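Supplementary notes for students who missed Thursday's class. We covered one full example, reproduced here. Read the sequence, then the structure, then the short commentary at the end.
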Amino acid sequence: MAENQNIKVCIGLSGGVDSSVAALLLKQQGYDVFALFMQNWHDASTTLHGDCEWEEDRFVAEMVARKIGIPFYFVDLSKEYRQRVVDYMFDEYEKGRTPNPDVLCNREIKFDAFLKCARKLGADYVATGHYCRKETVGLPDGDGGTQQVHRILAGSDPNKDQSYFLCQLSQEQLSQAMFPIGEIDKPQVRRLAHEADLPSADKKDSQGICFVGKVDLPTFLQQKLKPREGDIVEVYDAYYTDNEQYAYIHDTLSSLLPEEGEVKMITDYISEDKGTKTVGIGCPFSMEKMAGLSDGQFLRLSAPVNYDIRFETETYRSGRKHVKKTRCKENPYGKIVGRHDGAQFYTIGQRKGLNIGGHKDSVFVIETDVERNIIYIGEGHTHKGLSRSCLRIAPEDVHWIREDMRMAIGEIRRYRVRIRYRQPLQDATLLMRENGLYILFDTPQRGITPGQFAVWYTPVEERLATGARDTSVEMLGSGVI
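Structure (token representation):
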């Protein structure tokens, strides 16, 4: 502990229990710790509660710092947050994509703008309350020497692993980062907070957009994106029977099987907050056959089905007075079932907020067409429009945390992938091509959403303090879908 006294650590103290315990542990480990609270949002009118949540958070954070006995500072980064995170959100939604502001906040604010403020105050490191682990190892540099490489491992608590949110960090950012609670689980964090009598011990976990709070997303987005009424179109199963792209995906995936057979096209469904674990099932496709596909074939395989259902109208007379009215003719591929206030306010896989009745099962958004302002929906968890097996990440959007493990053009590797936070890891094959990185999952994935981040991991075996061996996962890289 004595050697830690000369290491100055800035803890990003948010007022929550996680960062509070992170600060406590650093103090107990002998580091020279100070707290820095950042304000990133001013407009309370956008939150569901309508109050200034950050003021309460700051008050609690200051009490925590006083209780632990560390200096407390405040910085306003709301300008940087709006420019780098919120404006990016508006731009992505306007284009019909669904961004992840938490990932952007970590890359652009916590480990950039905030880090720079902390360094000006003399910090050697910035610590946060993320549930993940950092490990620094020496690896051969190719010139006979060694280089330090920083690895991000999943947090020890499988229910709270937050490594996904750090998927865009660089080696330089990681070199100055600390994650003090990555080795413990949430119940233990609460227990430590209670034992130390911290004011945040019973504070609920934050929800909603990072630093903004819980918001009604359409209302929040309407600050810049104007409502525009359009059609909601339900897509019937018959559409896929006659759709050229769906047939191409089916036939191409079938051609990759080692032997002739029927390829799986629909995701297994368990519940809203759980997904099927595919780790250990084994790759159903032939590596040789995957390598034989051209860049153009992979580009088409990764493209989603586009919906172009045209409706013809007919006139008819209604009521005793035979008033002339217009209606859409029946279409075997789909039906206009409602209206919406802007396609940009919806995302693939969304179930709530559609206000569409008359269905036995839930209905989900399967596609949004922002240009034509149409939302396409499908009924049931096993609707064909919810499932896809292949996605593409553009070359400029591929980010490697482990630069030393960057894939070369033509290389194929097996990794574990998730396309959203808390999704169980999925086995997949990654193929690097000239026109992008392709991820082909062993089983179809539900709700692949443009704008979200796909993150890939590799298993690592580690020796525990008890001498036993355990298998964890290391996050290697990510990219925007």
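Commentary. Residues 226-450 form one domain. The two ends are 44 Å apart (CA to CA). If anything here is unclear, bring it to office hours.
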